[in-house]
Amino acid sequence: MSDSLSVKKELAVLIIDDNEQITKMISTFLRLNNHKCIIANDGKYGLDTLQKERFDVILLDLAMPELDGYEILEKIKSPDKLSRIIILTASNITKENQKKFKEIGITTILQKPVDIDVLLEKITTISKC
Amino acid sequence: MFGVTSFIIFYMGFLSFITTSDKLIGTIMLGFSGIVSLGTLIGTFYISRNITNPIDELINKMNEFSQNNKTTKETKTSHGIHELQYLHKNFHKMTGMVGKTIEKEKKLNRQLQEMDKRKIEFMSMMSHELKTPIMPILGYVQLLKKQELLGELNDQQLDAINEIHLATIRLQKLIQDVLTAQKIDLEKLNITKDTLESNEVIDLVYKAFSPICKIKNVHLEKNSENHQIVSDSDRICQVFSNLISNALEFVPEHGGKIEIGSYGQEESVVFFVRDNGHGISFEEQQNIFKKFYQVDASLKRKKEGSGLGLSICEGIVKALDGKIWVESRVNSGATFYFRLPKKTIQLHHLSNCETIKRI
Hints:
The structure holds two protein chains of two kinds.
Chain A: H1 3-7, E1 12-16, H2 20-32, E2 36-40, H3 43-52, E3 57-60, H4 69-75, H5 79-83, E4 85-89, H6 95-103, E5 108-111, H7 116-128
Parallel strand pairs in A: 1-2, 1-3, 3-4, 4-5
Chain B: H1 2-19, H2 23-68, H3 82-145, H4 147-150, H5 155-185, E1 194-197, H6 198-215, E2 218-224, E3 228-231, H7 233-250, E4 256-264, E5 268-275, H8 282-285, H9 309-319, E6 323-328, E7 334-341
């Protein structure tokens, strides 16, 4: 690993997404960048893990079977946890919903497919808040 | 009416019976008037039973039908003159048929609404399903290209990865285009209007397209008057993006030039994209906004694209209550204009959304 990467702080990232190929790809990329990843391929496990442990960044998909991203957002009460969420979705988000997300403290919404460099940059930004 | 007439006839007969001196004539007059008045009474009864009543009934039925497109069950009209009975029967037949047609139409309408709903659901599902697999493809391609992470690639491998990368980006753009075109078709395009400065929009587009123009060695120029406008900046940028992408395909390899800008009119702002490409003939101008139209439609054509770009532009501009058009002559470039109203007229685009809605 190059020096510039090893100097960076190791981040704990939770990825909540029902698509296993996506979680595998993102976790591979983040681990290669020396970050710690926990994968939740269903909403319920994601919410439980999120409530139990502390993460620097949480990547949250919206459309998931059973417990989806919207329901997870309704159940998270902690403003600190909400501010660490990056929404990563393939669904369209209206500007009204963007405003609603902003109101509860979520500033970053990324549309799939996202450029992995952009993703890493956003993860680093959120972790510094 | 006829009752009164018969009474008057009888009364006159009775009067002549009293007043006349000749008993015989008086009796004859009385008898005659009696017969006539009785005849009138019977006539009245006959007319009322066989003509007036059936007509009244028919009028009532017509009123009822015009109000709720339905009539009560056929009343047995055994009386009434033959023609009226026939009319009744046919009226009933007609209302029955119209009623059935209306029922059929209603059923069809319900089916269409259901189909429309399914189409929207399908579209939103497809949108999600098509975009999702692109994510790991693009991600792994990027990962492989970062050779410090997954190891060095030889030139051929790197070349292969670059090809996959380009194709993936093309596929991604195509999916985006198809989905936008479908949204336009279903009138489900999200429009959110805000107060904008036209210069800011132009700057945004200029910044976004400067790098690609530099790579392609095309001179990008902006020439804009600032005007305030109530519209959707994302959608305006999307129109610019499509128009510039098109222009980039058609400018000459050396000395290509694209100019973007805006100017104001009384109630509207006109945005434009001008290129110094080979121009569009008058015949082609009639068709270029049609879906899937390609100026060069042969399979051997060098230009890429879905043929959706301009039809998408037109759809978006229409949704923004504007108009798009092109001015061009063969061999002297083309300018695409779109005019948008400065102020929003209709309010129906602004949806009030209280909770976070799933779209």
